[in-house]
Every structure is written in C-alpha cells, then in structure tokens.
Specification:
RNA polymerase sigma factor; transcription; transcription regulation
C-alpha cells in the first residue's frame, strides 16, 4: 500500500470538509438530485488525483473544483447526446389558485418563469455569478473560456433574462427597467456582480432568494479508497 503524505492528506481533508456542501449543491442544481452525491464523490476523487495542481487560494480552488464537477456532469450526460452546457434548476414557488400574493412573491414567480425560458448556456452563465457567487475570472475558469468571453456571455444572458421578464419591445420598456427587475438582471452589463453585492474587496456576492435547489448535506466521510487512489 502506498504511504500517504500526512500534509497532503490533511490539506485534502480540510478542503473536502470546506467545499463538499458547495459542490453537492452545484451538482444538485445541474443534474438529477439522486445522482448529486455520486457526482460530488467522483469530482473529489479527481481532485485527490490532481491535488498537486490545485490553486492555493481558497476562492480559486473552489472554482477549480466546480470545473471538475461540471466535467463529471457533462461526461455523464453525453451518453444521450453531446452537450456543452448544463441546464440549471432553481427553487420555485407554486402559485395558490385564486390566492393573493405580495409583490415579492409575484416577482419570484415571474423570475422563475423567465428562468425556464433561458437556454442552458444562459442559465449556466448566470448561475455561476449569482448562485455560485464567482467572479468573472473564476466563472470563466469553470467554463474553460477567457474572462472577456465570460463577461460577454453574462451581458447577453442578462439581456435575455430582462427580455423574458418584460416581453414588451425595448422602446416600450421603462428606462429604469434594469433596476426594476429582480435577481441577476439588476446590474449593468459591464458589472459582473449582483446589484446588492458586498463591497469590492469581497469577491463573493450575497445569497440570492432563488439560490438553493435541494438541500446540501454535511460531507460524507472521506473514503479511504479515495485517499489511497493514485494521484
């Protein structure tokens, strides 16, 4: 049996404990909920094997793991046809027939309906910024594209979401429509963070009301077989 390096193993266990819930939620939003734990386990097996390649900064390593989990999901879904983007589910509310809803509930219902009209690529682009709370550079790493390429995709995805939220022709929409819409459409195209984001020195955005789909559980114990796998 191969002897493990104590420092390497300790760092991996710490990373696993810190990132597992985020990776599980990432998989739950993009794949079948019953398969999410298997996807997370497969992703961390790859992380262990490539651990020497992991970024040292905590915010960067999180994006690196998301990229690995995304590849695991894409590989699993390509059996029924090649796919280059993952549809992203969001938590939804069920309207009460004949019932009255407050403004916030109506806004969430409208946003959920508009979200379903986005393409998988648009959903994935927005979700990395709003739900996974990644910067443009980090989201670009997940998708395997340049930062500039991601910012262009994000601008177009926001524009598409605004259009679905307000289907009127652009010349009929109020000039302040951008500030009236909830969620990721709140920001200007050249701003890659939500409008209610924290100060610039904090790279992660606040939680979004539709952020969680499914409930991430506490991490499973690290499998010894994973730890003994060839890095």
């Amino acid at each position: 049996m191969r002897t493990l390096k104590p420092d390497r193993e300790a760092r991996f266990r710490a990373l696993y404990a810190d990132a597992y819930a985020d990776v599980l939620a990432f998989a739950q939003r993009r794949g079948h909920p019953s398969h999410a734990e298997d996807v997370a386990a497969e992703a961390f097996l790859v992380v262990w094997r490539r651990f020497d390649q992991a970024p040292r900064r905590p915010d960067e390593v999180r994006a690196w793991i998301f990229g690995i989990a995304r590849n695991c999901l894409l590989n699993a879904q390509r059996g029924s046809g090649r796919r280059d983007a993952l549809a992203v589910r969001i938590a939804t509310l069920s309207p009460v027939p004949g019932g009255e809803h407050d403004d916030d509930t109506v806004a969430l219902l409208d946003l959920a309906a508009a979200w379903k009209r986005l393409t998988p690529a648009e959903q994935e682009t927005l979700s990395l910024n709003v739900f996974e709370e990644l910067t443009s550079a980090q989201a670009a790493r997940v998708l395997g594209i340049s930062g500039a390429g991601y910012r262009i995709r994000l601008m177009r995805a926001r524009r598409s979401l605004r259009r679905h939220l307000d289907p009127r022709p652009a010349d009929e929409q109020p000039k302040n429509a951008q500030s009236a819409n909830p969620g990721p459409a709140n920001t200007q195209p050249d701003d890659t963070r939500p409008a209610n984001a924290q100060p610039a020195n904090d790279q992660r955005a606040p939680a979004h009301p539709l952020r969680h789909q499914g409930t991430a559980t506490s991490p499973r114990p690290v499998d010894d077989a994973m730890m003994e796998a060839q890095p």
